[in-house]
Amino acid sequence: MAESENEAAVVEIETDMDEDLAEDNEEIAWNDEEKQGEERKSIYVLLEESIMASDLDLGEKNKRLSRLIRIREKKVNIMLAGATGSGKSSTVNALFNMDVAEVGVGVDPETDSITSYVLDNLTIWDTPGLGDGAKSDEKYNTMLVKKLSETDENGDPLIDMVLVVLDASSKDLGTSFDLINKVLIPCLGEDKHGRILIGLNQADMAMKGKHWDFEKNEPDEVLLEYLKKKAESVEKRIYETTGLTIKPVYYCAGYKEEGGEQCKPYNLTKLFYYIIKSIPKEKRLALADNINPDNDMWLHDDKEADYKEEVKRGFFDTISDFIGEGAEACGDFGEEILGLPGRIAGALIGAAIGAVVGFFEGIFG
User: Fold this and answer.
1) Can you tell me the distance from the alpha carbon of 129 to that of 86, in angstroms, rounded to the nearest whole number?
2) What distance in Å separates the CA atoms of residue 286 and residue 276, rounded to the nearest whole number?
3) pLDDT number for residue 257
4) Whether 162 contacts 192, CB under 8 Å
5) What is the model's pLDDT at position 17?
6) Sign of dihedral through CA atoms 355, 359, 364, 365?
7) Residue 244: partners with Cβ closer than 8 Å, 6 or more residues away
8) Could you tell me how far CA 330 lies from the centroid of its own chain?
9) H/E element, 299
10) Is the confidence at residue 261, as pLDDT, over 80?
């Protein structure tokens, strides 16, 4: 009997331990979720926290918060254009956090083929592809002209920039050049110099898959030289027709063959950096808040520059210009923290920039 009682006591103790362990695991899981939620904080929240934690008096804090709110209300509209099969969809999926995008189509009969992806205050307009026939291309061009002619509530152009995606492996880009030279550039008006970007996608397939180092996920010297000449050729052809200098960015958005492995992107950080340069400073935070959070998307580039630091710098400019005071007494930029030269306005901006650095370190690794 005593032995049975002891066995029962042991079972009861083990049951209690299992229950306690389950409770502990639930608490750990809850804490992990909470931590992940903190890591996913909006960049606007991080900046608001920096302002509220500063030593500024209440009036100054409210002034900076007011500016931040105005920036928060700024909306960004990016148009994707290019031929069928160039990889527009894979490009937008690689760049932005499309898992949270709201998908819609235009309600106007003339624009019902333009798909919109709304990520908070960033909207991406994915236009149908060229090259499906003369009649389809004519309708496509009409849709583009109409969309590019739209204005926002302030009377400014609705579309902030156009990203034209070309297939780096294609030798026949005549239709795409007609789109760029005869439709897009004329419609972009006086601001055309900063509102159009050319991307040469599928860089890994530019020489039929040859000369791509799959282990390093980068082109070898032969393919790299080919891509540079391809970019120079596109730039020259556009300049000769329009007088506009546009330096194309060659990249690989990454794709997955059926039953195959996911190809990692290449030069995506460089492409994102040039997109940031094309967006007005006061609107750039919308891009930061919707960037693809997958670290693997940003690992490989041509290393001609430190694009990750350049990306950060693009957002630092926004903070310094619109949250700080350019006329304030300046403090050190904080090279030991940021790795960037220069000066900033006050300790608040230092804290705000520190928050942005932490934000991107969580993404870029």
Assistant:
1) 8
2) 10
3) 58
4) no
5) 38
6) positive
7) 185, 192, 193, 196, 238
8) 31
9) none
10) no
